[in-house]
Amino acid sequence: MEIRIGVIGIVIEEFKSANKVNETLHDLASIIVGRMGIPRPERGISIISLIVEGTSDEISAMTGRLGKIQGINVKSALTKKLED
Question: Matching SUPFAM superfamilies, A to Z (predicted)?
Answer without folding.
Answer: ACT-like
